[in-house]
Specification:
The structure is a homodimer of 425-residue chains. The first copy, chain A, is globular, with a radius of gyration of 20 Å. The first copy, chain A, contains 16 helices and twelve strands. Chain A is α/β, with parallel strands linked by helices and 425 residues long. The interface between A and B is large, with 61 and 61 residues.
């Protein structure tokens, strides 16, 4: 167990998704789903750790450069020491006295911290022969809370309050683990609703997904109101009245415009509206939330750290918490946000899609269910159909549900052929 | 006037300031003041544009890489077309559909946007043979407002409201220009109070600065309460009862701790407390503001965009607005924040120090005085004594006041010898 980190490699992987308009929305018309990918080597040839952060193309090279600046800090460290106090892993990779300036805890440097921190978790889980979700579900409440940096959170949640929260459901954890192993965890899908798809494509994708078991469908909106009205009608007709429709504006509106536009879409009975305005606008989201209730506001894929989430959750600006496995600084900070969401009674529905994100978030939703929320009410993890063939252990879906990963690690090891084919020059 | 941008060079300049503990504070113990510096070339050998962003050492290379990703977007553009609608310059450099993901408008990519956008302003001012402050002071209210991206601001400030704000003081602008040319603009200084200095050094620096005309002195706090109490006493005794003391915690406290600690320092009559907690914690700053009034809360050097400032200002979380010339996306976004501050009646006291920042902010405070606030009450621009010898046209101080720059451009062209001596390998 005394493995030492001896070096690392990085890979700038870019998948040319913009050619097919998969992933197109009102803010992101032409994404090339990309991974800034890091492999941590140890003094054992049998053990490496795999982590990535997600971008949509240009700028992936900046994350690679930032990963190089951060991964360097791990060389010579023993895995056992690093994970003896997991909060120190987070602090080490987000608290470098000079690098902190170019964040702090946001943007390129924080996306990179996620890749590196996640690679250490992957390594740790592999060393224990467990998938990451299982590794954390096996922790006691005190061990779980010891992963979290409570700095700047103490006005909302202290470490001892977090432990109390976790103790509520501690006794029943093993039942939920068994349930997950047989039933999986519910997902929703965005595969139908990209803005670049024709009405026919939208209809066909919806039929296909419905047949495969999904009951929640997300559609992108915000470019043109008449288009939105037509496309929402097509989707609602196809999915039926009982399924959940989510609409996603990808930050295109100002606050007053969001309130007006959503009022026009209300007749399609959306379950939530995602990213109605700029992700930094906590108070704007609160104003929208108050105006459009009972429709919920969902946000989080660009909410960059636990301090932002603390405010969103505490002031009623977010009714669905869509934390992102790469935007936040890795597993440690994700656990912090899950605890905050539980503290304020807001369901966690992690953001996914892209490449690698579904593989990550399946672990996170299982941790949330087993350790934190103990319920699946109003909880679905995002799912998208693309690019799973490029990881070694892709997600397994059954009837629209994520089946728990069985292999050890954090599930984002890329295949050799993906690395060969999609390395960016 | 139809210059075309034909290429650019970047320089990673790092000054080894950590060797002398200049710039040391509770969060940043060992900064090496650095500039990610860009030179834009045109089809005229006589005209280049100079811009930089500021970091404290490691991570400067990330800003350089991001500048390279962004400056590329300008090649082949005509300067005249770029500046015909200055808001489009901002949008072009912050709205790339893929690069936006690694911000948006924050962190490395936004620091880099500042360097590039400022280089275009420098170029434009040089082409007009004016310093940047004068270029903007010569604009009409409509032209000034046309520099600003009001996207995401309309719930607080619209373009037409901004024009109204600017029209209030339009008639009297030339008087204020004349006044500045003879009297300069007031500054305050942090040169005395770095955390790494001994009491003797603190006393000596304070005496020296007082003799040179300063009446506002800032001291770093937050590492150790007993130390702070002693050092504040030394400084207050040396500066006298009438001078303004500012204390700067550089984000070290949680919200409850900030309120408690500041209550202990209140007896030294601080004018403001700077960065009491994490810069993303708008609602935390509001709580502190309410608890410590009438002591003011100052923040802004890490407040990363106009959307964050909108909320800080609108909800009473900030009583002194310390915008940063590099953290915000260049001149355009600085103008947005000045307008927001005026809208909410909060004085602007720009952050400076480091390297190049004083050279930038002298322009900004003059613009604020001439066009926006029309008052110097409660307004001082930060000043620090270091590293001015490395720019071609360093600030000129008289009696603790910034004298208006006369040379054309934005004042951050580095000397050849600085580039030669401090280029980082």
């Amino acid at each position: 167990m005394s493995y030492k980190i001896t070096g690392f490699e990085t890979y700038d992987l870019r998948f040319p998704t913009s050619q097919h308009l998969d992933g197109s929305d009102a803010m992101n018309p032409d994404p090339d789903y990309s991974a800034a990918y890091v492999v941590l080597h140890t003094d054992s040839h049998e053990l490496s750790g795999y982590g990535m952060t997600f971008t949509i193309g240009r700028g992936n090279e900046l994350c690679i450069a930032a990963i190089q600046a951060l991964a360097r800090l791990l060389i010579g460290q023993s895995l056992h020491q690093l994970m003896a106090q997991p909060v120190l892993l987070y602090r080490k990779l987000t608290g470098d006295s000079q690098l902190r300036w170019v964040g702090p805890e946001k943007g390129v440097i924080h996306l990179a911290a996620a890749a590196v921190i996640n690679a250490v978790w992957d390594l740790w889980a592999r060393a224990q022969n467990k998938p990451v979700w299982r590794l954390i579900c096996d922790m006691s409440p005190a061990e779980f809370a010891a992963c979290v940096d409570f700095r700047y959170l103490s006005d909302a949640l202290t470490q001892s309050q977090a432990i109390e929260l976790l103790q509520r459901h501690e006794q029943s954890k093993s039942q939920r683990v068994q349930e997950l192993l047989s039933e999986g965890y519910p997902s929703y899908t965005t595969s139908a609703g990209w803005l670049g798809y024709s009405d026919e494509a939208l209809r066909g994708k919806c039929q296909d997904l419905k047949a495969r078991g999904w009951t929640h469908f997300k559609i992108k909106v915000g470019r043109d109101l008449q288009d939105d009205l037509r496309r929402c009608q097509v989707l609602r007709a196809e999915m039926g009245p009982d399924a959940h429709m989510m609409v996603d504006a990808n930050q295109v509106w100002d606050v007053p415009q969001a309130i007006e536009w959503i009022s026009q879409l209300a007749k399609f009975d959306p379950w939530f509206v995602e990213e109605p305005t700029n992700p930094d606008d906590i108070l704007g989201h609160r104003e929208i939330s108050q105006a459009i209730a009972p429709i919920r506001v969902a946000s989080g894929e660009m909410c960059h750290n636990r301090i932002m989430f603390k405010q969103y959750l505490a002031c009623g600006a977010m009714q669905v918490c869509q934390l992102d496995s790469c935007r936040l600084g890795g597993v440690n900070e994700v656990l912090a946000v899950m605890l905050l969401a539980a503290r304020f009674g807001v369901p966690v529905c992690p953001h996914a899609g892209g490449v690698g994100l579904c593989e990550y978030v399946q672990h996170l939703s299982m941790i949330d269910y087993v350790c934190v929320s103990a319920t699946q009410v109003d909880r679905v993890a995002e799912y998208s159909d693309h690019l799973h063939e490029y990881v070694c252990e892709p997600v397994v879906m059954k009837n629209g549900r994520y089946m728990p990963p069985q292999d050890s690690g954090y599930s984002v090891k890329f295949t050799d052929s993906a690395i060969h084919q999609f390395s960016f020059q």
